[in-house]
Write a structure and sequence with these properties.
Elements (H helix, E strand, L loop, with lengths): L6 E5 L4 H12 L3 E6 L2 H13 L4 E5 L5 H15 L4 E4 L15 H27 L4 E6 L13 H16 L3 H5 L1 E8 L5 H13 L1 H9 L5 H13 L7 E4 L6 E2 L7 H4 L3
Parallel strand pairs: 1-2, 1-4, 2-3, 4-5, 5-6, 6-7
Antiparallel strand pairs: 7-8
Helix pairs in contact: 1-2, 1-9, 3-4, 4-5, 7-8
Bound molecules: nicotinamide-adenine-dinucleotide.
Nicotinamide-adenine-dinucleotide binds next to helix 1, helix 4 and helix 7.
Length: 265
Amino acid sequence: MDIQDKVAIVTGGGSGIGRATALRLASEGASVIVADVNEDGGKETVSEIEASGRPAAFVRTDVTSPEDVQTMIAAAGETYGGLDILHNNAGILGGPAPFPDADPASWIPVLDVNLRGVILGTQFGIQAMRKRGGGVIVNTASMAGIGFGYPANPVYAASKGGVVLFTASCAALMGSDNIRVNCVCPGVVNTPMFSRTREATGALNEATTAFFETLDLIAPEKIADIVVQFIHDDSLAGRAMMVPNGREHQLVPLAEAPASWSGRS
Ligand SMILES: NC(=O)c1ccc[n+]([C@@H]2O[C@H](COP(=O)([O-])OP(=O)(O)OC[C@H]3O[C@@H](n4cnc5c(N)ncnc54)[C@H](O)[C@@H]3O)[C@@H](O)[C@H]2O)c1
């Protein structure tokens, strides 16, 4: 899909990866709805886009709320005439106390924001995109959601693994609705989420802190670049792109699936 003159929504667009994607989509010619619970951050992203001469609007959205997500999707229609591109990106890591000692109240929101939020966005996004004859959805998963998981935070890994398999299971929408759903699986990205994690982990776990120090951090603009690649490449659906630290990004190999299940490219 060519991004010029398309309408895009980016959740979690007020910070980090979401801000980088929102700016990139605007620079490629999209009108952008920036959705976030963080009003200050979201409005700052909008100001940056407007300063570049492109249209953008902020919609305060909690991605765990079906009502908020429907309002966010409706805003794309009311403000710019419809929806073509959705980046379900909002996410949280959760509190510092590691599972299984953490209070459930601290990890339940991790599943809610990272997984329920993506599913709600995809559901209502698809309903809007059908009216346009198609669209592209890119979900933000994580390297923590594939392969070896994330022993320091198993609930976060579960939420992101859920996003990867939810995305894979949406592959058939390419054939039925001309809607391609893919996901990006970043390694450790240099965003405010990472800075907060490094601080919180420092007090808890020396080994993880030492590991962070060795990492070649990924710039959020690199993840925005992968999102744009997924939008441009009309052949990809249901796929996950891993973006490891210090190594080239690559598509996660497909697991064998019965032809009637896959619907994948
Ligand atoms: N930073 C990393 O190392 C890294 C690695 C892999 C995956 N990710 C994923 O990338 C995505 C973006 O992370 P980031 O590093 O840019 O973090 P960030 O904290 O800089 O940005 C996340 C944004 O999501 C927003 N948000 C949180 N809860 C929300 C909710 N309920 N509704 C709407 N918005 C909400 C926050 O306000 C914030 O603006 C997340 O899904 C995260 O899990 C990050």
